[in-house]
Amino acid sequence: MNLKEIVNTDKFKKIVKLRWMISVTLLIILFVMYYGYVLMVAWSPETMAKKVGENTTFGIVAAVVVIVVAWLMTVIYVYWANTKYDQVVEELKQELD
Fold first, then answer.
1. Which of 55, 63, 69, 76 is 20 to 30 A off residue 15, Cα-Cα?
2. pLDDT above 90 for 24
3. Do the Cβ atoms of 95 and 6 come closer than 8 Å?
């Protein structure tokens, strides 16, 4: 098979579509979290200043959650890419030979 034939296969189109869907979904989640946090700071500073425990505010907890969720999304994407995406890409490369 040549490159043009592989690009036109359903397998190739499916994996490209799936990669875009996963990437865009994670991007939207990340934007909502980051910009949601920034907008909460701007529009509702009293909410962010509320105490959670003795020495911590809601704003600090929310910031930690944003960072941890962003890290987890990265782990999820890398896991998917290493276990599913790379496998399909390797199969397509073998078909190219």
1. 69
2. yes
3. yes
